[in-house]
Write a sequence for this structure.
């Protein structure tokens, strides 16, 4: 059974960098049929996809955040990470990591972490 | 841009429930539905517009007609009260987009 677990600071000061890591168990981040994603959800609001990283290290980022977001993958630790620079209160949200499936039938998110609340506040 | 309707839906156990999303493109391969309960991560229900994810009850089904995608729950069960999101993969820029959600509440 694939499991994903987010970790990182729950409180970030404005203008600082928000950093999260997602540890993957029960599967490999190096598998070519998957891609690895960050998705966030402000309290009481909907879901926003931040971006994805492939095992090769190639990335797609949401254009709304592209200048501030960086994702990386560490196959030796079987984990992937998110960095979001210049954090503001608008970045306060629950951050989910999720596995994406890359099939002929489509692309979608089949396994999710439990979510990590990050608050941006001084 | 994904529009989803209704935003809220009050229903009773046993009801047939239909939620609709209008997408920007007809590519059903890139359309999915998720269920989210309070304090939990979303759960994949349907992918490629109509393929049921393994382990999801057969009362859930998805269909597509042009750019309109529909999630149907044939007979609402107590555990189905939740918020439902649709999702598409935009072709350019290549970005996943979620609908605003439909909250299904007890009537």
């Amino acid at each position: 059974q694939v499991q994903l677990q987010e970790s990182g600071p729950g409180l970030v000061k404005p203008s600082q960098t928000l950093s999260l890591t997602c540890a993957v168990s029960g599967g490999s981040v190096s598998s070519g049929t998957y891609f690895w994603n960050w998705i966030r959800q402000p309290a009481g609001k909907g879901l926003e996809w931040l971006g994805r990283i492939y095992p090769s290290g190639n990335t797609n980022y949401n254009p709304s955040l592209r200048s501030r977001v960086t994702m990386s993958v560490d196959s030796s630790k079987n984990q992937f990470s998110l960095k979001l620079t210049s954090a503001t209160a608008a970045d306060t949200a629950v951050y989910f990591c999720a596995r994406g499936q890359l099939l002929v039938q489509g692309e979608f998110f089949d396994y999710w972490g439990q979510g990590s609340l990050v608050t941006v506040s001084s | 841009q994904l529009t989803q309707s209704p935003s809220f839906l009050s229903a009773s156990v046993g009801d047939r429930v239909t939620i609709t999303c209008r997408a920007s493109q007809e590519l059903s391969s890139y359309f999915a539905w998720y269920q989210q309960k309070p304090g939990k991560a979303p759960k994949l229900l349907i992918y490629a517009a109509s393929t049921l994810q393994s382990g999801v009850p057969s009362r859930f089904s998805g269909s597509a007609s042009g750019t309109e995608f529909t999630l149907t729950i044939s007979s609402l069960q107590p555990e189905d009260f939740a918020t439902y999101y649709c999702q598409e993969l935009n072709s350019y820029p290549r970005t996943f987009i979620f609908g605003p959600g439909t909250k299904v509440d007890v009537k």
